Each structure stands twice: as structure tokens, then as C-alpha cells.
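User: Hi! I'm working on a homework problem where we have to compare a predicted structure to a textbook description. Could you give me the structure for the chain below?
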Amino acid sequence: MRTLYLDCTTGVSGDMLLASLTHAIDELEGKGAGFTALQNGLEKLGLDGFELEPLDRKISGIATRYMDVRQTAGQPLRKLADLTRIIDRARLVTAVAEKSLKAVNLLAEAEAKVHDSSPDEVHFHEIGAIDTIVDVVGAVLLVECLKPGKVAASAVDLGSGFVEIAHGRLPVPPPACAELARDMVTFSSDAGMERATPTGLALLKTLADEFTPLPLGRIQAVGYGCGGRSSDEQPTYVRAFVINTTASDMIMAERGRGR
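Assistant: Happy to help. Predicted C-alpha cells:
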């Protein structure tokens, strides 16, 4: 069985997931394969006004991938119905469409709860620019390309300190992140910064079947995805492990436990 394991011990964001998954696919299929799969999938959305560029970045000496999503034209202020319409009209595989819709609904529900409104009334300002649509649909598309039998994740570092957002200066995790983190395995480091974003948490909540230490198996690829806030001083990245586990691996593990 193939397992996709998402190591989020230094945080998680939409762009970090996107980058780590393209990097992992490159490891398996050759350089450029992940980005090609991403571009081909996103074309189905029929959206203009953005461009993507995969960049190689070293973070504290570690080679990582960064996915630069650039807005090239003005975008309308979108609500949940607008994002739903974009996904529904796209020619996406059913599983990709369903999981993408689940993630954007989780985002809207979290924002609505903390602001005492309804999901339909939420304006996707900070979380609804074009990069959010790209991050959500793109990450789900790339997981589908890997075809894992299971998706697992580590505990998630939410960070600490304070963050400046549209609503002012708020403690980490900010309210929407705290809401999305419900029932997930999380912890708080002494980073003094936000390490998990709403988009990253919504995607992880949608994609991960369980939260666990690195599972048993043979590692086939490791993709490193950094984000816009990653630096040598704050070395943050998601690691996407592709792990194959055979029946003999399971037997050996069981024998080891019996000693």
C-alpha cells in the first residue's frame, strides 16, 4: 500500500503543501512532472489573472521547493457561492471536486463561526484571493495524482505570538485557525509567529485520514515545500513522504513487536 505522509511539525500552509507535493512527484517521475500535473489540472478551472512559477529555495541549507502564485489581473471579491461555482463548472475528477468543495466549506464555516455570521456571507478577503483557489484545488489534484491508499499527517505546529490580519493584531493561533484545528493533533512551539494558516489547516483536515508518527514502510520520495514566510531564521516547510508498505514489511514489524 502507498501512504502519503505529510510532516507538518514546522507548520502547514496551502503553498507549502502545493510545493511539497509537486516536489514529491518530481522525485518519483522526474523533474517538472509535478508542475506539469498541476498546470494541466488547474487549466480545467478556466480562471485567468494568475500565473505559477516553481522556484528552488534553500532554507537553512536544505533544498526546498517554493510555488509562487502571482496574481496578474484584478480579481473580484468572492464568496462561498463563487468558489463553489468555479469548482462545480470545472471538469474535475469527482473525488477532486468533492474534496476541494469540502476544504472551501471548512474555511467558510470557520470564518463564519468566529464572526457570528453565516458561511454564505463570508467574504474571502485574505483567504479568498486567487492563490487560495489554486492552493486548495491544486493540492487535492496532486494528492489524486499520487494515488495513495492512505493519507496521514504528523502533529501540526500552530506557532505562537501574535499575527497581523485584516481584523487587527490577534494571538496565535488566530480564531479561524483555532476553529479549524478542532479534533486535529496540534501543538504550539516557541516560534513567535503563525505557523499554520487557515488554508493549510482546511486542506489537512480534508486530506488526512489520521494523525500519526511516521508510519511503517519504505520511503520512495520526500518532497520539501517551503512557504512565503520560510527563512533561515524560521526554517519552516512541509515534507511530503511517499511510503510503500508491503505485506512482508508488516510481518517483519509484527515479529519485531513480539520480541
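For your comparison, note the following. The mean pLDDT is 93. The helical segments are 14-29, 33-42, 80-89, 94-114, 130-146, 175-180, 198-207, 247-257. Good luck with the assignment!
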